[in-house]
Amino acid sequence: MGKIAIKYGIGTAVVLIVYFLLLKVVGLHEFPVLSVANGIIFGVGILIAMQKYKASGKSFFYQDGFQLGLVTGAIATILFSIFMALYIFQIDTEFAHAILDSWSLNYNKGGLIIIVTLIMMGFSTTLVLTLAFMQLLKDSWNATKHPEK
């Protein structure tokens, strides 16, 4: 399970980074509303990881799938947050000010608040999507109907 979580966590982070860089190239990276696609990217990464684990033939217990989803999303969140911290503090120091100006905030506009927000959004998205996907992938405990005699 660990290998699957690492593989798809890193893959999800790479797709998130590529998406951000594509937005940067087009000039749309300063519009926070476009981060909605991050949730879709997280969802695809977590769902594929869960499906691969379930298809591996091992018993698929709820707690194992739940743990897999959380670890996959956590890895993606941490890696993407590290990239964004490097981007905000080293590459484009004006990016944080541009984002925070669009939020109409009147206090110190440091980039740390964006990193904290990214981490909170990443972990909350991971939790919600993992709960939702486990409802789709878990085995039913409902008794099967017996044929009528």
TrEMBL record:
Highest taxon of source: Bacteria
Listed name of the protein: DUF4199 domain-containing protein
UniProt keyword list: Membrane, Transmembrane, Transmembrane helix
Species: Ulvibacter litoralis
Transmembrane stretches, start-end: 5-25, 31-50, 70-91, 111-137
